[in-house]
Amino acid sequence: MGNIIYIHYGDIYEGLVDSIQPMRMCEAFQDNDHNVIIVYPDFGFKGIGKINSASVWEYYGIEQSFELLPYKFPFRKFAYNRGGPTLALWRGFGMLSILLSLTLSSADLVYSRYHFGVFLLWAMRRLFRFQYKIAFELHEDVKTTLLINTLRQIDTIIVISHGARRLAAETYKISPNKILLEPDAAKLEAFSNIRDIAILLPSNSALKVNRLVYAGSLHEGLPELLCDLGKRLENQIEIIVLGGSEEQIKLNSLIAKEKGCKNLHYLGYVRPSEVPGYLKAADILLLWYPNNLRYIDYISPVKLFEYMAAKKPIVAADFPAIREILNDKENALLVKYNDIDGIEYSIRSLLQDEKLTHALATRARSDVKQFTWKKRAQRILDFVLTESRDRSVL
After folding, report:
1. Strand-strand pairing, 179-181 and 67-71
2. Is residue 390 domain-resident?
3. 3-class DSSP state for residue 359?
4. How far apart are the first and last CA of the chain?
5. Strand 237-242 to strand 210-215: parallel, antiparallel, or no bridges (unpaired)?
6. CA 206, CA 339: separation in Å to the nearest integer?
7. Share of the chain above pLDDT 70, in %
8. By residue range, what is the domain housing residue 69?
9. Angle CA 101–35–5, to nearest 5
């Protein structure tokens, strides 16, 4: 049994999507018989944000609890509202203060996605001659010379896609034997014994129609695409959208109403523990991204694996990073992101071909079994804590 410290940059009580993956990873590390502490900034959201009466464990759907260690520092609200360099500096001082209070000499692994945090961890290890391993999970191009140089010095870089691996090895010149490719994952047991969620999905049709569910951010161009699909497939599907801010929901609901799109429903943000129920209640799942996302070449979205775990047919935007997991006509239907005719055709194909629908959903569920959080954490631990590989640990 080892001791793991996870350094997170967000307040877990704010309930933002950026906290889902770190909480899942901490649970998975703990589930692999390690002692886990997650260190995170306290911006004062506990009890007033998305997490109110429900406990943090219930909110994230976590059964294996671990230690929560928030850090506070003066002027937290000012720093949070100011953002930018002010917030980064506040996080740095706050994290440094809490790390100095921890017994870092007993840590076996310190894990993080926090850019400046990993520099502090490396600097403290070098200054105080600590022996803990440092693993950084890379999700996008970091660009800063300070961090790139730091990444070359630490023990392990976890990348979530082949694009991210090329970025680390070819652009950052990080030794390939320090890089581990591990896509994101799903918690399969969360999709068992789900009940009564279907009644929460609205329907304006008196007929039995199929439900197309999209979960995630309301990227630029998505509301227009969904409205177009809704009008083309009126009386055939109800489109359910999970996610988005209150302002986005109000604006896009108004646009849909003005355009006469009656079968498009924005349900807003859904707590992570409830997402599996909505996905299981769907008939078709839509995975869509525009091509102008700064991280489109590096993505490995959690919702992709949750879609697969739901055992429902998937229509997905065709990008290289998505094709690392999904294969057209094998475990999903892949369509160019801006091909509205192709997306409509794929949906109609699933509505009309029960055999195709069953085959895609079954294959996706089978394929996702290798992508569980517990297995991901175990592979990472095996890689990071292996002593036989040549390491540059300074």
Report:
1. unpaired
2. no
3. helix
4. 25
5. parallel
6. 30
7. 92
8. 3-185+373-384
9. 45
